[in-house]
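hey so i finaly got around to running the thing on NAD dependent epimerase/dehydratase from Leptosphaeria maculans. pasting the sequence first so u can double check i didnt mess up the copy paste, my clipboard has been acting weird all day
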Amino acid sequence: MAPQRLIDRDSRTRKRPMRVLVLGMCRTGTTSISSALRKLGYTPHQMREVLMKSSELVLWQEAINVTLLPPQDRPAKQRNQPPYTRPDFDKLLSDYDAVMDLPGCIFAKELIEAYPDAKVILTKRRYEDWEQSMQESIWCLDTWKLFRLCRILNITQLAPLMRLVHSVFRVHNGNQYGGSAARSAYEKHYSFVRSLVSKERLLELDTDVELRWKPICEFLGVDVPKEQYPTMHEEKAMRKNLEAAWWSMVRLYRFGFFLDSSNDQTQRRSWDRCDDIIKVAVQDSNTLNFTTLESQYLLRNLQT
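ok and heres what it spat out for the 3d tokens, dont ask me to read them lol
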């Protein structure tokens, strides 16, 4: 008998029907869509909700492993465990009636099957712009060498986040962060979602053009708000915060491991500072700007 899954110990139950699945990839206007849905009375789930509790990172990691990876690629104890289905997603998403962004968007098939009455919004943008945005934000967590080292050695409290990002893009594009393979995976995702949903149940939104309330509200059957549609731009701010986190790691590598045992608290404070900055960068990237001339110099000269 396979070991019990972590989700099987979870006692949460769904509190409201799932109404909207936003299944476009991250960095396709999902933050603006999330804000818009909140103004319309929805409670959307996205990556920032996963970051609020370390237990959620672990559960979503389990969901990826047992649902999206072939048995031979899973950790040994998960090789015979069953995939997540509606009862499991009801626990993960118990407080939400909309889902978008990472990691939910890579479970398109599973969520569409689990919630047949939910409407599907597919946000998209020109691939070249999306790739640049990803390379300046989320992909940094798996392409910058210090972040990769922290993930592999598990030497920061945010290593679970880095592992989750790595796993998401292992499933999505085989961890190919640019080029023809990444483009093919991006286009395949959109074709796959379209193949799963009837036209009546699907709204495609091109976020390269200015979004308006009208198409979204008509699709959802709600009144158009009088206020302006929310617009948010996060890529540059997130990149700057990730640079600051990277610089904190550089300082720790240069000095932290040479501290004697009497300075363990100093080393821990350095890691905690790094964790705080990464968490802000991913969760609320418009809040802080930590970029310094030192980090910019080091990124140019030491990253490779």
